[in-house]
Amino acid sequence: MSAEPTFTAAMVQMCSGLLPGPNLEQGTRLIRQAAADGADYVQTPEVSNMIQANRKALFEHLAPEEDDLSLKAYRALAAELKIHLHIGSLALRFSPEKAVNRSFLIGPDGMVLASYDKIHMFDIDLPGGESYRESANYQPGETAVISDLPWGRIGLTICYDMRFPALYRALAETGASFLTAPSAFTVRTGEAHWHTLLRARAIENGCFVFAAAQAGTHESKRQSYGHSLIIAPWGEILAEGSGNETGVIMAKIDPALVETARKTVPSLQHGRRFGIADPKAGPEHLHLVRGSSV
Length: 294
Description:
The chain has 7 helices and 18 strands. It is of the alpha+beta class. It has one domain: Carbon-nitrogen hydrolase (Nitrilase/N-carbamoyl-D-aminoacid amidohydrolase, 4-Layer Sandwich).
């Protein structure tokens, strides 16, 4: 653990375009700004390297992890700035037919401390004709990931994952004090659910939530909701980004607030396994609900 009990977290709000090069320039500029302002931990949004709706164009610009120029540059930047740099996710080549949406936690020495592949695919049809099929291009992950920061444990998730609270409860029960949700939320779903979902994940687990977001109108014509958030374990919003502009938000983080929240409402200790009975099916159809996450 660090001798310094508190740290400064920064969320980088981006508007990623079609090509990795310009997005790397945008991300690098904002990360440098955050570090210059005193950030110890910096997070970028989901798909920081490109937002590309055309499948053919997407796969033309994908690289496998070992060859990805953005990842190499961000590792060097973390080492130069001596920060913990969390690249919310990069679109990378997984196979000839599939990409992967992968998050990277990079240490101050430039080494990758942890990586996480987005588990839940955003396959949805919204009113008004807006439709997304993430599974058409991306291979879903299968494993939750937790890692260590000098100030406590951090759980990695990405965007649509936030609608699946069992994942966050599992991370909290494994010792996470900080939950992350780098995102590229749509405007429609963001206006309806973004703040509510993220505050709920913080409150129900007694954790800080860090959520850097894509914002504004992209080159692909997609619109992202923005409103990057830093949320305290009691549910207070400590910092919030704008709805349509790039930039950096920051907040001082006191990990002691995690213990305070969990002592005040010790729900992590009170979860129980229980069954769900279907009277029409009979007692032999009693379903056991897994863990304390319900």
